[in-house]
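pls design
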């Protein structure tokens, strides 16, 4: 649909649970200074060519990509466990997502063709809702590893995982 809610269209035409859509990467550097920022109208401008989403159409949640018009739908993950919350990197080269293949929710990253799936987090808590920073250097996510949902950030290679919030109320990051 358009940003104002008009022109809504069903692109997947599938009765299963399709959710967690995310536009493909693509940073607009309108002013040419090499930094995607507010002077470019927004931190990141979606690539109108690709959409990543999760779907249960094959029996359990898997990650898919498709063209913005709904064509060329392709499954990227294929395992017996839940894969959800896909989000493109700003340059469109990677997709970060949540997977339960290790027994609980962990953050994974893969190439946009589904290859090179790498686990970035590994702890007894649940790590979920990942999203890249506008420059692609960091990934923000929610975790309950300290007993409460808190917002964390890490380098895009999974290193330097740092808690950003610490309060008794649940803090959830919402992917942009």
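designed seq:
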């Amino acid at each position: 649909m358009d940003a104002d809610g008009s022109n809504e269209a069903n692109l997947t035409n599938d009765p299963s649970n399709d959710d967690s859509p995310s536009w493909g990467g693509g940073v607009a550097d309108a002013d040419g200074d090499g930094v995607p920022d507010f002077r470019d109208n927004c931190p990141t401008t979606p690539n109108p060519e690709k959409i990543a989403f999760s779907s249960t159409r094959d029996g359990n949640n898997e990650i898919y990509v498709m063209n913005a018009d709904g064509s060329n739908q392709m499954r990227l993950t294929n395992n017996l466990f839940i894969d959800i919350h896909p989000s493109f990197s700003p340059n469109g080269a990677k997709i970060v997502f949540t997977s339960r293949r290790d027994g609980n929710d962990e953050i994974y990253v893969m190439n946009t063709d589904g290859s090179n799936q790498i686990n970035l987090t590994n702890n007894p808590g649940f790590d979920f809702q990942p999203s890249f920073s506008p420059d692609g250097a960091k990934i923000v996510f929610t975790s309950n590893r300290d007993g409460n949902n808190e917002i964390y950030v890490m380098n895009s290679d999974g290193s330097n995982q740092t808690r950003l919030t610490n309060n008794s109320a649940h803090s959830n990051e919402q992917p942009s």
